[in-house]
Design brief:
Layout lengths: L7 E4 L3 H13 L5 E4 L2 H9 L7 E5 L7 H10 L5 E6 L3 H13 L3 E7 L4 H8 L19 H9 L3 E10 L5 E12 L3 E3 L5 H6 L3 H21 L5 E7 L8 H12 L6 E6 L7 H13 L3 E7 L6 H6 L4 E4 L1 H8 L3 H17 L2 E4 L5 H10 L3 E2 L8 E2 L3 H14 L4
Parallel strand pairs: 1-2, 1-3, 3-4, 4-5, 7-9, 9-10, 10-11, 11-12, 12-13, 13-14
Antiparallel strand pairs: 6-7, 6-14, 6-15, 7-8
Helix pairs in contact: 2-3, 8-9, 12-13
Bound molecules: ligand C2E and calcium ion (2 copies).
One calcium ion binds next to loops.
């Protein structure tokens, strides 16, 4: 469908605003416009076949049904068009509303803060594209514990590696091991499709064991080649439920001939710790043994201040959600980013910014004095055999591209 032929519904309780937006749309060449002053009328229009819009411009503050309630009704009606939030409310309220709508899987093209002009409206309209395939055709497969067990037994789990680099010098400090399942029929399967099931079904210890074997022998090879880079391994909170986990790691690094100071264990806590004391003891023992401990996804979920207080972490990974948005002029997020850097500095932890996707992100980290970085701008996770070629190209970029 050509963009200008899309059907647009304007929902606003203020007739003057409706008129204003309709005029702007007409000037931009859109003429299939319907309007509504009440949420209920708009919903009726959406549910009657033939008049369902491709895009709704939705006011947030309305007397009877507010914009968020209206959006919730859209979900029940299985509306699969797009939406633009329009409001005079505070920027932070607009941002939260956008997040909320996205969480409901509504395609939000963006937000317009009243008063806005035609160009701002146009910029968002240009983002519109036809809706993706209906749900079902692209739904991701969920794997059963049996399938995962089979994958472990057949050693179908392999590691990809993503570099962590020093922001000031560009030097490669380490590689993070990210597990992949080389599925005989489905191709490469990503961890979010099986780690959760492995945790719930008690298979995560075996997954971790295999990841440790693979990653540590790779780290040993780097060491032997004189590369001087560490290895970071993701550990699930569920791995910390037994007191002998530190001994397992000890055994594994011994077998591989790697020393603890080359190894960082990255801990994410996606759910609340069931046995706080036990995991605290396990983590403290790991630190005593000389492993670096990293708090992953800092700022999200349960990776928070209480954790920093209780657990002797040596590294903080600032979640990518904070990094990219801090750089993109979101003042609240930028404040959180700076506070995290500051906090880590005061406790004496090193900092890694995750999700550094473009030169702008990278420059932002350089300007703000962040220690280390990881992300697509530097490299995507890659199989082991691609690393030396990547290292050459990275060194070339450092020389030629004015990155540092
Ligand atoms: P994580 O530890 O936070 O890993 C970072 C994730 O972000 C990786 O996804 C990586 O591919 C992706 N990423 C890296 N740079 C960028 C970027 O610039 N932009 C964007 N958008 N994404 C980026 P991946 O490999 O799919 O892993 C997802 C999560 O699965 C990991 O998040 C980690 O929590 C978990 N995981 C991975 N490997 C293991 C493992 O061996 N054991 C356990 N327990 N969990 C693992
Ligand atoms: Ca990680
Ligand atoms: Ca992370």
């Amino acid at each position: 469908m050509e963009n200008r032929t899309m059907k647009i519904l304007i929902l606003d309780d203020d007739p003057f605003m409706i008129q204003l937006m309709a005029t702007m749309l007409e000037r931009l060449g859109y003429d299939r416009i319907t309007t509504a002053e009440r949420g209920a009328d708009a919903l009726e229009c959406i549910s009657s076949s033939g008049s369902t819009p491709d895009l709704v411009l939705c006011d947030l503050i309305m007397p009877e049904m507010d914009g968020l309630e209206f959006a919730r009704n859209l979900v029940t009606q299985r509306y699969n068009g797009a939406l633009i939030i329009v409001s005079g409310a505070d920027h932070r309220i607009l941002e939260s509303s956008e997040k909320l709508l996205q969480a409901h899987s509504i395609r939000v093209l963006g937000r317009l803060h009243k008063p806005f002009n035609k160009d701002e409206l146009k910029e968002l309209l240009d983002k519109w594209s036809p809706p993706p395939e209906p749900a079902g055709t692209s739904r991701r497969k969920v794997y059963s514990p049996e399938e995962i067990r089979h994958a472990i037994e057949n050693r179908e789990l392999i590691s990809f590696y993503q570099p962590k680099v020093d922001v000031a010098t560009g030097r490669v400090v380490g590689m993070e091991s990210l597990v992949r399942w080389r599925h005989p029929e489905d191709g490469l399967v990503f961890p979010d499709q099986f780690i959760g099931v492995a945790e719930e079904s008690g298979l995560i210890d075996e997954v971790t064991r295999l990841v440790l074997s693979n990653s540590l022998s790779t780290a040993r090879a780097w060491h032997d080649a004189g590369m001087g880079i560490g290895i970071a391994i993701n550990i699930s909170m569920d791995n910390l439920k037994t007191l002998d986990f530190p001994d397992l790691i000890d055994k594994k690094i011994h077998e591989a001939g790697v020393s603890p100071d080359q190894v960082t264990l990255e801990i994410t806590e996606s759910r609340l710790m069931e046995n706080h004391l036990l995991s605290l003891e396990v983590l403290t023992r790991l630190r005593l043994k000389g492993f670096a401990l990293s708090i992953d996804d800092f700022g999200t979920g349960n990776s928070t201040l209480a954790q920093l207080r209780d657990i002797p972490f040596s590294e903080m990974k600032i979640d990518r959600g904070f990094v990219h948005e801090a750089c993109c002029a979101n003042a609240t997020v930028r404040a959180i980013y700076h506070a995290s850097l500051d906090l880590a500095g005061q406790i004496g932890m090193s900092v890694v910014a995750e999700g550094v996707e473009d030169a702008e992100d990278w420059d932002f980290l350089r300007q703000t004095g962040c220690g280390m970085a990881q992300g697509y701008f530097i490299a995507r996770p890659m199989p082991e055999h691609c690393i030396s070629k990547w290292l050459d190209s990275w060194n070339q970029r450092l020389l030629e591209d004015n990155i540092v």
